[in-house]
Specification:
Largest sheet: 6 strands, mixed
Helix content: 25-40%
Strand content: 25-35%
CATH topology: Rossmann fold
Order of helices and strands: EEEHEEHEEHHEHEHEHEEHH
Number of domains: 1
Mean pLDDT: 90
Structural class: alpha/beta
CATH class: Alpha Beta
Strand order of the largest sheet: 6-9-10-3-11-12
Number of helices: 9
Length: about 260
Amino acid sequence: MSELLKISGLHASIDADGAPKEILRGVDLVIPPGEVHAIMGPNGCGKSTLSYVLAGRQDYEVTAGSVLFKGEDLLAMEPEERAAAGIFLAFQAPVELPGVNNANFLRTAVNAVRRARNAPELDAVGFLKAVRAATKNLSMADDMLKRNVNVGFSGGEKKRNEVLQMTMLQPTLAILDETDSGLDVDALRIVAEGVQNLRSPDFSALVITHHQKLLDYLGPDRVHVMAKGRIIRSGGPELARQINEEGYAAFLREAA
């Protein structure tokens, strides 16, 4: 398969005070299997909207275009079907779930995906063995599994918890929506290592970021610049370095 994800002419809107507001204005993007791609761009250009549309968030209406994932129509799938197919979204601001135990939540999610993929479910012993190995690799304390999901977590703990979920769910395509936001250097490195540990011919990632440092750790195959609701430039890692040095002004003129 030469194309894991193929986005063609994607337009999407959200309701704003009773009227549709177009945010995506013709996004074209192809991600092959086994590659890490990064999207950079100024605030409000549509980066997070793209991640929400791919994950199936219902606030957004796709008005034109298509998205193929493993050759199938992704837009025709419900959010849970997309997750079972291998889509994972790490949120910019992970939500807190009071009263929901972190370990129980994660085991339920893992087994739901395994059932959908016709894989055997993990019993309590098998799950604990796997999740403790994952938390150790992410430098997470075991007691985080006993706490409620993200409740009382620091920003760095929330992001590590997202990477833990990604590690356990074993997606085919991970979408990281500014997962590096608010992280110190050590936490940033751990998040990057979580992605790197999954890299294989069967795993791809779409990383939305403002920060060169994360990309230094990840070594993306391609970098895309987004402005005014579409991707206006694509290139190698040198494109991220150009943005870091020069900003987005030249790209915004190009998008005008």
